[in-house]
Structures are given as structure tokens and as C-alpha cells.
Specification:
It comes from Stomoxys calcitrans (Stable fly). The protein is α+β, with helices and mostly antiparallel strands and 463 residues long. The chain folds into two domains: 101 residues, 2-Layer Sandwich (Uridine Diphospho-n-acetylenolpyruvylglucosamine Reductase, domain 2); 323 residues, Cytochrome P450 (Cytochrome p450, Orthogonal Bundle), CATH 1.10.630. Helices cover 52% and strands 8% of the residues. The protein has 16 helices and ten strands. The strands form four sheets. A four-stranded mixed β-sheet has the order 1-2-6-3. A two-stranded antiparallel sheet has the order 4-5. Strands 7-10 form a two-stranded antiparallel ribbon. Helix 6 runs antiparallel to helix 7 and helix 11 crosses helix 14. The chain is globular, with a radius of gyration of 22 Å. The protein starts with 12 loop residues before the first helix and ends with a strand. The model has no long low-confidence stretch (mean pLDDT 89).
């Protein structure tokens, strides 16, 4: 990966994962990385399952040294002992997660946001209509619009406010546009900070300096909106006529604005790009798979005869084929190319004694596409996720081959909101619109996430 002389670029990480397996087999040691421990790539899903199941209550997930340095060194004045859930490990991670996990994962909290997120999505679809050109096509930078929708959704959940990202003609110096730019910059450059030679650890490179500036901006924005929510709570009291918001629950239970701020920051940092890129991938797969798209549309038409019917959790639960389609996109084109753990004790894996401290990598982008674990793995078949009574087909599907949200104690904290946002968007869009893609096929590459690389000029026409 060295500039100019190396054969790989950051965008090839998914390809490298696959080539390592083809060339070396089920277990591959990858050493000699500048400033980093050896990596152990595992392609045996049974061994991956064992690692997950034996990890205890405080799994060590190697992640984002850049965020770790920012939280524990650059802004120790702000974070102190409250590192949050991203880039934090051991007991400090467990303690923080235990403070916020219950309100984030409660079904009542998720239900509370269904209608507000539907309103955001309606605004987004109206904006999409206004962006169509004479050929009913969306603009080249449509992925930026998806980021705006994602950020508006997360702002609604984590900061209890509408950020205004979907307004037309945002000026470059407006707060929503600054938030969008900061989010994209921070996350798009994490890949470079994480995977290239980490000079920023030893002296402040221009990339690192810009990254810190962006992160400081995020902290300020989160603080501003959380202070506003706290003032509202003090003056009006908790929500009397229904479920309190996520922010209200955390502030009331923890009596500490900083915990709410750090939770919001983590949800925003990790959520914007992952959900946006996943949606880009889903829309591209739908637009290039007309048969499957038609099946989703037929299911939605049956469940929602009148497109203006408000969504409910009961309706979303019945969208079996739509949810199967989402899972199949995650299996074949996993947005997160892998997960991993730093081994906390000496472990025997595939007959090898592996010392503690080694970083084990579980490349779901490869294991989800291995015939050994998934029947007819090269075919795109959403039916594999359905029960036989729903039209599913009997075939092998190892439960640990594709884990888009991870597994166990460190499973993605925001997974319920991520699922909710994606299901709302896809159901609202595909109930009323047909998507097509009439250009050269796009390749997938890694920026920070694994997603189609190129302009998403979808044709969007009303049914």
C-alpha cells in the first residue's frame, strides 16, 4: 500500500481480503504493517464463531486509532474517563455502554421515532423529485443527497432536532452544510489515517490537523443541541403525552449532559457514512435488478394499498421480501468489509497457537460469498433469508457467514435505528417510484465503506 511503489490502493482492501484467501487458505498472517500489530485473517466461519462466543463481557474490538487518539489525548479535557463506545475498550467501554444501551435498544424508543423519521423521509423524496432532470434522472452527486437524509435522520434521533440538511440551496457556510462536509471529510479520511503509514501519530500532518478540526466542530454542534434539549427538559419537564425521546431518557437517567453528548457524537460519527453507503448500495442493486425490485413493489402494494397510509412497526414487520433483499445486499456487498477482535489471551485457532494481542480479522465480505457456507453463493437470492412458508428455499446459510452488525456484546449499538431508517426509506420509495440505472455498470470500492464507486444517476419515475 506504499504510494507509487505498492500494487494496492485503499480502495482495494476488499480485493486484498479475497486474494489472501485464494492464495493462502483459511488462516492468513499479515505482518510488517508500519506502526501496527500483525493481522490474522480468518476465513473459517466455525473458528470465527468460536472467537465470538468465547470473548466474554468486554470484547476488545480493534478500531480507529485516529478516534482513540482524538478522545484520549487531543481532547482528554472534554472526554476524560467517558470515552463512549467507539474506540474504547475493556471496563470503561462496558460502563459507558451500560449507561446508554437500554434506552437505545428499547423497542418503545424505536417506535417513538417511526413517525418523525417517516416525515424526514417524505421531505427527502420531495427533494428527490425536485432534483430530477428532463430525463427523470437524479444528479451525479446523488450520494451527497443520501448523506443529507442520513444526517437529518440521525440528528432527529441523537440530537432530538431537525438539522435542516434537506433544505434547498443550502449556502456553503450554513450549519447543515458544514455538518455534512465535516461528516464526509472525517469518515472518508479515516481509511487513509487507518491504513496508510501513520505519520500523524508522531507529528501533526495536514490530514490529521483537518481531522481534529472537524471532530472539534462535531463536539460543539452536539453540545449546542444537547444543551438546548436540557433547557427544554428543565422548563417543560419530560414528555407528558407519550414516550420520552432518546436524549430525554439518557439525560434523565444519567443526570449528565456529557454522557448524552458523547453518545450522540458516537451515533453520528459511526452512523452517517455506514447508513448512507449501505443505502447507495441497496438503491444501485434495486435499480439494476428489475425482477427483485418488482417483487418488493408488489409486496408493498399488497401491504399498503393506499401509498399515503402512515407506516407502523406491524407493517414493517410484514415486509418480509424487502428485509430479505436488504440482508442479501449485505451478504454479497457487505458495507463493512469485516469485523475483528484483538485476542485477549493465547488462543488455538485452526490448530495454530496464536498469542494474545494479535488482531484477528473476520472478512465478512469474503465469508458471506463462500460456497462452503452459503448455498449458490454467487447468485443474488433474497429468498434464502425467507422461511419456507414465505417462499424461501432450503439451502446452507451459516449464521456467522454474514454479520453486518457484528455479534455479541459489541454488536452495533445503533442497529435498530439503522434498520428502521433503511426500511422506511426503501418502503416509501419503492411503493411509489420505479428506479432504473441506464449507464455503464459501477464497480464497488472501499472509501471508508464498501459501496458503488461512481455517479448514482438513477432514473426515478412515479408508478
Amino acid at each position: 500500500m506504499m504510494p507509487f511503489i505498492g500494487q494496492y490502493t485503499i480502495g482495494d482492501v476488499a480485493k486484498i481480503s479475497s486474494q489472501l484467501h485464494e492464495q493462502y487458505g483459511q488462516i492468513v498472517k499479515f505482518g510488517g504493517l508500519i506502526g501496527r500489530p500483525d493481522l490474522l485473517f480468518l476465513y473459517d466461519v466455525d473458528e470465527i464463531e468460536k472467537c465470538y462466543r468465547s470473548e466474554g463481557t468486554t470484547p476488545f474490538r480493534p478500531s480507529m486509532p485516529s478516534i482513540v487518539k482524538y478522545k484520549s489525548v487531543v481532547r482528554k479535557d472534554f472526554f476524560g474517563d467517558l470515552g463512549g463506545v467507539v474506540g474504547v475498550h475493556g471496563e470503561p467501554w462496558r460502563q459507558f455502554r451500560s449507561k446508554v444501551q437500554k434506552p437505545v435498544l428499547q423497542l418503545s424508543t424505536v417506535r417513538r421515532y417511526l413517525q418523525p423519521l417517516e416525515v424526514v423521509t417524505d421531505d427527502f423524496l420531495q427533494r428527490c423529485e425536485s432534483l430530477l432532470d428532463g430525463n427523470s434522472e437524479l444528479p451525479e452527486d446523488f450520494d451527497n443527497e443520501i448523506h443529507k437524509w442520513s444526517l437529518e435522520c440521525i440528528g432527529r434521533v441523537a440530537l432530538d432536532t431537525r438539522l435542516g440538511c434537506l433544505e434547498s440551496n443550502l449556502s456553503p457556510d450554513s450549519e447543515p452544510q458544514q455538518i455534512i462536509n465535516a461528516a464526509k471529510y472525517a469518515l472518508r479520511n479515516v481509511a487513509t489515517l487507518e491504513l496508510k503509514a501513520p505519520y500523524w501519530r508522531y507529528f501533526p500532518t495536514p490530514l490529521w490537523t483537518h481531522y481534529v478540526k472537524n471532530m472539534n466542530f462535531f463536539v460543539e454542534v452536539c453540545m449546542k443541541y444537547i444543551k438546548s434539549a436540557t433547557e427544554r427538559l428543565k422548563s417543560q419537564g419530560p414528555c407528558q403525552n407519550g414516550e420520552p425521546s432518546l436524549l430525554e431518557k439518557v439525560i434523565m437517567s444519567q443526570k449528565d449532559e456529557k454522557i448524552a453528548t458523547i453518545m450522540a457524537l458516537d451515533l453520528i460519527l459511526v452512523g452517517i457514512d455506514t447508513i448512507s453507503m449501505a443505502v447507495c448500495s441497496m438503491l444501485y442493486q434495486l435499480a439494476t435488478r428489475p425482477e427483485e425490485q418488482q417483487k418488493v413493489h408488489e409486496e408493498l402494494k399488497r401491504l399498503i394499498p393506499d401509498p399515503s397510509t402512515p407506516l407502523t412497526l406491524q407493517l414493517l414487520d410484514q415486509m418480509h421480501y424487502l428485509k430479505a433483499f436488504i440482508k442479501e445486499v449485505f451478504r454479497m456487498y457487505s458495507t463493512v468489509i469485516g469485523n475483528g477482535r484483538t485476542l485477549q489471551e493465547d488462543t488455538v485457532i485452526s490448530g495454530y497457537r496464536v498469542p494474545k494481542g494479535v488482531q484477528a480479522v473476520f472478512p465478512t465480505i469474503v465469508t458471506g460469498n463462500m460456497e462452503k457456507y452459503v448455498t449458490d453463493a454467487a447468485s443474488f437470492r433474497p429468498e434464502r433469508w425467507l422461511k419456507p412458508s414465505q417462499g424461501g428455499f432450503e439451502g446452507n446459510l451459516h449464521p456467522f457467514a454474514s454479520l453486518p452488525y457484528g455479534y455479541g456484546a459489541r454488536m452495533c449499538l445503533g442497529r435498530r435505528f439503522a434498520d428502521l431508517e433503511m426500511q422506511i426509506l426503501l418502503s416509501k420509495l419503492l411503493r411509489s417510484y420505479k428506479l432504473e440505472y441506464e449507464h455503464e455498470p459501477l464497480n464497488y470500492a472501499v472509501t471508508f465503506m464498501y459501496a458503488p464507486d461512481g455517479p448514482l444517476k438513477f432514473k426515478m419515475t412515479k408508478y
